[in-house]
């Protein structure tokens, strides 16, 4: 897992990549970091819902997949796999909600 200092360093690098001559305050970097964290977690949660809606199909659940235990089906013990198509299906709505 990445700690808070590493996340803020990554956020700072992302901000500087788009605006190389701009100076950012520590508070601005922390706020941007928090916003990015929320965006990623919301995308993850929505994609998990999309994947769960398709859980009847065997391609989305696998006994061998290595995923977070929180995403396992308590009845069968199988684990949920989030694929890129799940993220693609929620991306437009997510961007509209965060704009």
Description:
By secondary structure, this protein is mainly alpha-helical. It has one domain. The protein is about 60% helix and about 5% strand. Strands 1-2 form a two-stranded antiparallel ribbon. Helix 1 packs across helix 2 and helix 2 (about 25-55) crosses helix 3. Residues about 60-70 have low confidence and may be disordered.
Percent in strands: under 5%
* SSE sequence, one letter per element: HHEEH
Q: Please, what is the average pLDDT?
A: 80
Number of helical runs? 3
* Total domain count: 1
Helix content: 55-70%
Question: Could you give the distance between the termini?
Answer: 28 Å
> In this structure, how is the largest beta sheet organized?
2 strands, antiparallel
- Counted beta strands: 2
Enumerate the strands of the largest sheet in spatial order, edge to edge or round the barrel. Answer: 1-2
Q: Which structural class best describes the helix and strand composition?
A: mainly alpha
Query: What is the gyration radius calculated from CA atoms?
Result: 17 Å
**Low-confidence runs:** 58-69
What is the 3D form? elongated
């Amino acid at each position: 897992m990445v700690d808070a200092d590493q996340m803020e360093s990554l956020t700072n690098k992302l901000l500087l990549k788009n605006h190389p001559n701009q100076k950012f305050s520590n508070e601005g970097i922390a706020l941007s970091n928090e916003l990015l964290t929320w965006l990623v977690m919301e995308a993850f949660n929505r994609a998990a819902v999309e994947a769960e809606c398709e859980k009847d199909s065997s391609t989305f659940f696998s006994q061998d997949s290595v995923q977070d235990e929180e995403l396992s089906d308590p009845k069968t013990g199988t684990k949920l796999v989030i694929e890129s198509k799940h993220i693609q299906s929620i991306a437009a709505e997510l961007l509209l909600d965060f704009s």
